[in-house]
Amino acid sequence: MTARKGWFVAVAAFLVVGVLFLGVRPMQVPDEARYGIIPAAMVESGDWLSLRLAGFRFYEKPPLVYWLTAASISVFGEQAFAIRLPSALATLATALCAGWLAVRITGRRELGPLAFLVQATTVMPMVLGGVITLDPTFAAAVALTMAAFFGACTSSGRGRLGWLAAAGAAAGFSFLAKGLLAFAIPGATALAYLAWQRRWRDMLVMPWIPLLAAMAAAAPFVLAVERANPGMWTYFVMKEHVRRAVSPDLTQQPQPWWFYGAVFPAGALLWTLAWPNAAKGLRGAREWRDGVRFLLCWAVVPILALSLSGGKLATYVLPMFAPVSVLVAMGLVRGRESGTIVRDLPARIGQALVWIAAGGCIVLAAAGNERFGVPMLWESGASMRLACLAAALVAWALADGWSWRAADGTRWLTRTAIAPIAVLAMVPFLYPTAALKAAKHPWPFLEKHRDALRTVDVLVVAGGSPALATSWTTGRRDLVIAGWADEFDNELNLADELPRRIGWEEVAVRATEARAANPPRSFAVLCDTPAAERLLESAALPRPEAQDADRDLTVLYWR
After folding, report:
1. 275 belongs to a structural domain
2. Helix, strand, coil % (nearest 5) of the chain?
């Protein structure tokens, strides 16, 4: 298959999996609501330097992703598609970097779209590409940094200087996306690679241009944000980096040292089982030796370094899937062309498992979940979803069998990569809304009460997830937070924000004060149902004029 046809197939597959159904799945709480509210407030106020979470100062994350999301909201409005689009485009950029590296290392243009396809159909990059978080943008910036660094390692003269400057600029924007990991991951990779290549002089000389370029790229934005948010960077570095690494608490995700060793292979599905064949195909590939070493350093060294930290997040490994995707594409094509990769027993077992899964979906679609004790996953259309999933699985099994008839390695890998596209495209439609608590899927309940919550004078919300979802749905940035401040506790204890964070014992006082005002002020409380029951038992609280509940969420009104 020619490179042009390969790129056409690869980009079309990405559009189906990564862009076409971006707005189908409901927003996740709390992450997507949090990362949507801050840029929405930027668009509303016209102030793109101040970081505000429903009116509260939010210093825990740098601003680049918020700016990109605000730009998307400016074009498409406040909707799920708009807030996820920057992640999807960042995922596209990462896959393009993987494709470029495959061509740069091998000199074979047809391998570019194959590395792109492997990256685009790897589970963790694909799933996170449809979610608004910092990590896809950070991974794209790291991929640009590493691609430019490898360009410098394989160039000379002015070209080398240009590549180094580009690597530094990308690292500067990577810092604006995630923080100091922007330097830790490329730095650890570069030093390990140069040491492996015994390029001792370059270890001393090469870092300076990227460092200066990174500072030049990031400094204007860093200073502007600091002026608008005094103390933001100090707080961000100390909490999100120093404390996470040294003494993580429950909010800093403490995990055992082997955590990433389990997360990374799981995130690399559907290609994890192809790793042995890819390694077999790369054996003896002396013409690609330098590139393989670079990719191995990028894939392995940062994960080992991150494993030393006490606090760990699964998404931290996202930038390391790109080099593995390139290695897999290179190894599988070379192995297939040399005859070392054949349709063996594991391949047949894998195809049989897909057929079995398709059969299971057909049985559930025809007989119904309840007959087999399977819990209800969706409010409606369960049989239709299962039938469509069964059809997608059948298409996968048939396409996988068809792929082994290909006469050359590139055509075989292309068919293998696109075989599960229909299944991957269905992922947004399979989000189990009926199996989630109302606090995790509050959207129908909040839509029902949107107008009332939007117009009430005083709105008290308990819990970070309900508060974030309420602020997104109603557009209100003046919520009063009851109980644990959770998402809204930036630990700065700023005087102008303290009145908006109250204890449960103060809720009755606020309600009484609102009703005694002249004229009386309307008052509402949105909280979990047990908390509402305890609140109503308070003798100091007048009985609400209206209330409504949905599973574990309750809203109370005093009008």
Report:
1. yes
2. 70, 5, 25
